[in-house]
Amino acid sequence: MLIATLRFPTTATVPNHPRWPVILYKNAVPADAHAARTFEERFAAHGWQGGWRGEVYDYVHYHVDAHEVLGVASGSATLRLG
Questions:
Q1: How many CB atoms lie within 10 A of CB 36?
Q2: Which of 5, 33, 35, 56 is the most core-located residue (most Cβ within 10 A)?
């Protein structure tokens, strides 16, 4: 598993946090037919709620009182972070 830490400065549109980076885990779960269920089980085990399957927002948004986690079980996604 590859782990990368990404930090972004605050901008006029997104107030990125100076201490809390984006953490990217590549190949965090096996890429098999059960990957989506594996993500859901791991997220639930950590108490992470509000999950969904499908698309991500196509506009800039951020959370002032929460962290967000995204698991890509199959296919691909192009994201703008930071």
A1: 14
A2: 35
SS3 string of the chain? CEEEEECCCCCCCCCCCCCCCEEEEECCCCCCCCHHHHHHHHHHHCCCCCCCCCCCCCCCCCCCCCCCCCCCCCCCCCCCCC
Q: What is the pLDDT of residues 17-46, one digit of tens each?
A: 888 899 999 999 999 999 999 999 999 999
Q: Which two tokens stand for residue 42?
A: 């791991």
State the first-to-last Cα distance of the chain, in angstroms, to the nearest integer.
23
The Cα 45–Cα 66 span in angstroms is: 17
Contact indicator for 9, 16 with CB cutoff of 8 Å: yes
81 with 6: CB under 8 angstroms? yes
What share of the chain in percent tops pLDDT 70? 100
